[in-house]
Amino acid sequence: MFSSNDKISSRQIKRLLIFDLFGAGSLLLPSQLAKSGNGIGIWSILAGMTFAYAYLWLLHTCSNRTASDYMEYLKTGWGNLTARLLYLCYAVLSLAVCAWAAKVLSGLVCDSLLDAREFPTALLVILLLAVYGASAGMEARARVYELLFWVLVLPLVVMLLLCVRQVQVMQWFPLLGDADPISWSWFWSGTWQCFAAFLPLTFLLFLVPHVQDKKKAGRAAMGAVLYNGVALVIIYLILLGIFGSGALEKEQYPIITLMGMVKIPGEFIKRLDAVMVGGWFLTLYALIGTALYYGMVIARRALTKWDGSCGSKADRKGKNIWYAVITVLVYAIAYGFYRMPQLQMAAAKVFYLVGVPFVVLIPVISLFLCKKEKELYDAE
Fold first, then answer.
1. Whether pLDDT at 69 is above 50
2. Membrane-spanning residues where (predicted)?
């Protein structure tokens, strides 16, 4: 029997994070890293992992000082009004990430399975599914991804093993890129992008009320970063060894292209790429659901007196209204990204230049400002 206490285990946290981290990173990072020149992209992934671990330590320190939830912790140092404004900024970032992931997934589905003209319908269906999943609550989502984990991991491992024989190791070299300062500028750019791919870890700050054991949750998050980083390294090496850096950087979704090249003995599946899209559908869907869920929760906490509880009928009704409003906003942003690619590019620049420093600096500053919550937590 499953419990229904709105709490999730460390194993469920790890698998949720792996789903959130893997989809977008494995789709988009390889072609971006190939621009740095051959194997230097490996070092970008490893450097991004190192920064992710430092960031995870920062989040874990903040969560250990929190007796109730992150907003109450921020209030002790920043004040009520500023804490709500910070929460609103977190909500905007969550909704932007949700819209971007929904646009990527809708485009992927249309390119692989449907037609570009059906993008608005595909986007609507995906967001409705995301609302359905997010409204079920954290515990229900954790159970689903826990059950789906090996169903997705094992086929991917088999497909990658079938690709290994096509890898040309010489295409990995030189491991330090070209003897050109431009290569190292791409290294730092790739490192920043790799670190940004680990930023769904930020949601751990808002997961505190749902965690059974904070110490185990921290170890679970460390495991998720390790598994995802190793998977990115392996995928990048395979793609680089097959395509080469020149061809790899021109591919939009190189891992999907690779899946279409795999030959299964007997060839009983003709469109393997279409089948494997299902794996990335679920990982991107997980990120969309996570960002939508936290976007709703954070925005509602920032703009109302709601304390996070959903026990009463009025609270559940309010949650449904908020989900409806948030979904409309996300659909409008995602469709805007689709119709105006330059808008998405501008949003990406804002995210890298403003959003990433924001989610890093606020916990850092809070460590010095917010101490009262730690005293209350220790007193308990």
1. yes
2. 16-34, 40-60, 81-102, 122-140, 147-167, 187-208, 220-243, 277-299, 320-338, 350-370
> Which of the two residues, 40 and 85, has the higher pLDDT score?
85
Name the residue ranges covered by the structural domains of the chain: 10-369
Distances (CA, A) of 325 to 88, 322, 328, 378: 15, 5, 5, 39
The β-bridge partners of 211 are 8
pLDDT reported for residue 218? 87
pLDDT tens-digit readout, 200-245: 999 999 987 777 777 788 899 999 999 999 999 999 999 999 998 8
Tokens coding 278: 């299902």
DSSP string, 149-188: HHHHHHHHHHHHHHHHTT--GGGG--TT--SSHHHHHHHH
C-beta atoms surrounding 2 within 10 Å: 7
Say whether the peptide bond before residue 174 is cis (omega within 30 degrees of 0): yes
What is the distance of C-alpha 334 from the center of its chain? 16
Instruction: Kindly report the pTM of this predicted structure.
Output: 0.91
Q: Over pLDDT 70: what percentage of the chain?
A: 88
At the top level of CATH, which class does the domain 10-369 belong to? mainly alpha
Structure tokens at 282: 């679920």
Rg (CA), the chain: 21
Q: Which amino acid is at 187?
A: F
- The DSSP output letter for 205 is G
- In degrees and rounded to multiples of 5, residue 211 shows phi and psi of -90, 135
Amino acid letter for position 295 = G
Residue whose structure tokens are 């998050």? 221
Nearest to 59 by CA among 360, 295, 370: 360
C-alpha distances in Å from residue 254, one per residue of 21, 61, 259: 17, 37, 9
Count CA atoms within 13 Å of residue 178 on its CB side.
11
329-354 pLDDT, tens digit per residue, is 999 999 999 999 999 999 999 999 99
CB atoms within 10 A of CB 170: 9
What is the amino acid identity at position 140? A
